């Protein structure tokens, strides 16, 4: 697969660099060495054995290609890795290598270790997005724009409210992801630590599991979770929530950048958004990259959700199906957020285009408040009919809506022109927009 051209552009390049095959090997080694050390501290491994293993294996050149080839016969990367590690150790240490563990312990924990810095990077990017959104919200708390429902003009709202919803979506997803725990995995063949020998063997397994979590900086599970995939389910859905929030923002921005609308624009940059054949175009490329990444994350989440129920004490294909989608989802989310942060930090906002679009129907978007104004004077049915007739006449003639409404035979002379002008001013019909922006900012700044 030409991944460098078709897959990697949607991902974080920094994350890709840090998540190569060698990184997984190093994470598996980190697990095994920590396991030996916590067992040594509890008398299950001879004194000094953990350090001797570390001295031998820390600089050992594990053969990544051979490990990859071994997956075909063993079913996962941990099995050939463990074989290579044992072969490199002196005879007297071999029996203590991988003691009491199973391949799922190695691989699940290694994936948690690999994902830990990715979640930290994602959190930092989400904080960066929040930081960029708050000034936009403040600046445009009273900037009127068209509110659209079913893709049609509806009523005015403040642009700051739209930004607030983008920011709230991202922040809610951030807090959800921050609450997800990455637990250690250690249970042995069937999850009850039956492969351990040592003093107090019946308590040794759980004690080692807890100590291993502390040493590796991972969460302590209640029990080993070989076929209890709730931690993976929670992580996948939380990543998907982040991608959905970023995708919502990108979709809105892309729609608002359309030539005929032009209310916002992506940050300018050399070659950014260029077309291969049309020199005049400025495509919303960042939005496309965000949405492309998000769509892939949704697909990866589906794979993981379909693997949530796993048989008995070890998954038969379900566990195996999780690995690539989980890592890819994290890399895609990080990549999408790198684009989202830049988009928010440099978003070009065009209030004049927003005002132009509010007037695109001759101001007929203000038919609702006009109808409310006329109802006490002319009755509900007549008010609705007249406000609609005036909207259509304003659209066809290009005259201001207030002027057309005031000249309507049933309205002329009954309401002051100033009253009509004020009632049909979009800037004065923004409802709770400013209050909503204030409330959103207060919530965002809680952390």
From TrEMBL:
Residues 362-441 form the Adenylosuccinate lyase C-terminal domain. The keyword Isomerase applies. This is 3-carboxy-cis,cis-muconate cycloisomerase. Belongs to the class-II fumarase/aspartase family. GO terms for molecular function: isomerase activity; lyase activity. Keywords: Isomerase. It holds the Pfam family ADSL_C.
């Amino acid at each position: 697969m030409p991944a460098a051209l078709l897959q990697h552009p949607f991902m974080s390049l920094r994350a890709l660099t840090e998540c190569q095959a060698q990184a997984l090997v190093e994470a598996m080694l980190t697990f095994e060495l920590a396991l030996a050390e916590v067992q040594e501290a509890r008398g299950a491994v001879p004194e000094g054995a953990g350090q001797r293993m570390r001295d031998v294996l820390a600089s050992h050149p594990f053969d990544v290609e051979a490990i990859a080839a071994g997956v075909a016969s063993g079913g996962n990367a941990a099995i050939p890795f463990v074989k290579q590690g044992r072969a490199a150790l002196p005879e007297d240490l071999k029996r203590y290598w991988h003691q009491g563990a199973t391949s799922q312990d190695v691989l699940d924990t290694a994936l948690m270790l690999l994902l830990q810095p990715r979640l930290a990077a994602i959190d930092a990017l989400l904080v960066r997005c929040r930081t960029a959104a708050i000034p936009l919200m403040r600046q445009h708390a009273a900037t009127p724009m068209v509110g659209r429902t079913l893709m049609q003009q509806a009523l005015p709202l403040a642009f700051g409210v739209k930004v607030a919803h983008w920011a709230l979506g991202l922040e809610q997803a951030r807090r959800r992801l921050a609450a997800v725990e990455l637990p250690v995995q250690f249970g042995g063949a069937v999850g009850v630590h039956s492969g351990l020998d040592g003093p107090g063997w019946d308590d040794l397994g759980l004690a080692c599991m807890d100590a291993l979590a502390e040493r590796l900086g991972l969460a302590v599970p209640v029990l080993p979770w070989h076929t209890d995939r709730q931690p993976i389910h929670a992580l996948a859905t939380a990543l998907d929530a982040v991608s959905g929030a970023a995708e919502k923002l990108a979709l809105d921005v892309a729609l608002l950048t359309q030539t005929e609308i032009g209310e916002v624009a992506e940050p300018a940059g050399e070659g950014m958004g260029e077309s291969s054949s049309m020199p005049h175009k400025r495509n919303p490329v960042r939005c496309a990259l965000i949405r492309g990444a998000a769509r892939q994350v949704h697909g990866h989440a589906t794979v993981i959700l379909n693997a949530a129920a796993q048989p008995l004490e070890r998954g038969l294909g379900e566990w195996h199906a999780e690995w690539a989608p989980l890592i890819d989802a994290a890399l895609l989310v990080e990549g999408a957020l790198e684009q989202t942060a830049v988009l928010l930090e440099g978003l070009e906002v065009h209030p004049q285009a927003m005002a132009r679009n509010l007037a695109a129907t001759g101001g007929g978007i203000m038919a609702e408040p006009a109808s409310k104004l006329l109802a006490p004077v002319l009755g509900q049915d007549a008010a609705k009919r007249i406000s609609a007739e005036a909207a259509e006449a304003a659209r066809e003639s290009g005259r201001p809506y207030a002027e057309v409404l005031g000249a309507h035979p049933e309205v002329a002379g009954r309401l002051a022109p100033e009253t009509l002008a004020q009632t049909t001013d979009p800037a004065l019909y923004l409802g709770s927009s400013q209050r909503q922006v204030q409330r959103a900012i207060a919530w965002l700044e809680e952390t």
